[in-house]
Amino acid sequence: MKKFLVSILTLSLVLSMAVCGYAQSDENSQAGPTVGANVVLADPSYSAMSADELYELAKAEDDTIVIYSETSKMSKAVDKFLADYPEVKVEHYTLTPSEIQEKVETENATGNVTADVVVVNDAAGTIYNEWYEDGYVEAYYPADIIANIPEEKLHNALPLYEALNIWFYNNEQFPDGSPITNWWDIVEVDESGKQAYRIFCKNISSDTSYMSFYANMMTFSAEMEKAYEDKYGTPLEYTYDPTVVPVEANNAAYEFLYRFAQLEVGFIPDGDEIVQAVAEGTEPTLGFATANKLDQRDENNWPIAWVTQMAPYASTSNPKNVYLITDTKNPAGARLLIHYLMGGENGDTPALDQFARLGTWFMRSDYVDEANEIMLDEISIVELNTEAVYDSYLDINDFWIYWSDFFAK
Q1: CA 17 to each of CA 31, 49, 150, 276, 374: distance values in angstroms, whole numbers, following the listed order
Q2: In the sheet where 198-201 sits, what is the strand order?
Q3: Region 185-193: what's the mean pLDDT?
Q4: pTM over 0.85
Q5: Distance between the two ends of the chain, CA-based, in angstroms?
Q6: Which domains can be identified in the chain, with CATH numbers?
């Protein structure tokens, strides 16, 4: 998995608002976002084209646009697109992230590239650290759309929406709010070794986004140490042995996972069942699942709520990104579809409504989000450090598997 890339610099993506797209030296051009060094930019001549201009070019391509997506809601968004642009053809395939990775890599290896657009998260950093360099995908940044997206969200790719993993608690057990305000609350035990909370989640090694979450925590070791000292008044004592499974010494993320591995945790593979366990808990209970599982509260009248504030943070960015396949046979049509899925010039295409759901947040600042009770900036979130996650993912995965198995015996 690890193809260590030489470049760790950042480059500046410069957009011109004229039809010519990107400009490298035109003093009248507008500076665009700073993007990661690994990002390969798509043909800039399309970047400032309107939907109408793209549609005229797409009609002449006369080929079927193929999109791979990890969300089944994409099919309804595609239906809306086809209703508005009837002279283009689209095929959509709903696949898991691992299936998307396998198909894209196999298609490139065999020279039979079928896809034009891919919508998937990059939790382990494979796309950012491998696919750009290998020539599988490119980043398309439409000028009228990225003008409404925070620059830090554009570092790796064009993000469609944010899908967080987050802690849930039972708000009948805790009507005054979250019982946990610090990550070290989760692994707290008393003198007899009894843990403070009954905990339910997926096995961390079974879900890429879970493992990525903790790999990213490694970059916040100092903040985790401070959170510990703020809670207990003493410095964090490291108890894991970094030589058993060779890992970095004195990193608070490893210490947290080492202590977490010693707890009695109910591993449940299904997110709905995780929040159900929280709702039906007879003792103080926590669950870790995707934020959109809060919709089960309304469907089942369950007493569940998000933990939105913790020291040093409550969640990690986990966006669904949109990628353009390199050398697509439908350069205008694929971009038109992406432009539409992202909400178009004014953030008002019917596509966005198909994805709108409690617990997912669109990146566009001009979109009125009626599905969510709180905005994304009301949750303490840190960005995903894709380079660091990519470099440490296998190490932290091995560490977790070893110690969780060790303490389970």
Answers
A1: 10, 9, 18, 50, 33
A2: 265-267, 198-201, 285-290, 165-170, 304-306
A3: 95
A4: yes
A5: 30
A6: 10-162+320-375 (3.40.190.10), 165-316+389-408 (3.40.190.10)
